[in-house]
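INFO  loader      accepted 1 record
INFO  loader      residues=96
INFO  predictor   begin
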Amino acid sequence: KEAAGRISERMEFEDGNNNKVTVKMLKMNCVDFKDTCSEAKIAAFPTIRLYKKDGSFEVFSGKRSVDNLISFLTTAIKNSRLIIARHHSIFSEGCQ
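INFO  predictor   done
INFO  writer      dumping tokens
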């Protein structure tokens, strides 16, 4: 909750092309959306992923804290040239 409030569509990150980008965070209930979670191969909860424009993603596996998540996003986005310019298809689902 705290991470989404500080990061989702608020905080700017710089990608590998020096473009400013934001991250949209999504919380998905895998009980209600089990087919979507199964298709996305989500096997553990909670799962934190950074989806890229090409459909690939990076998984956050660090200690769960806002600062560690920001550090992960900063590094992963800076090292990427394929950051999402539009929302990944998984964002068509989610908690309603």
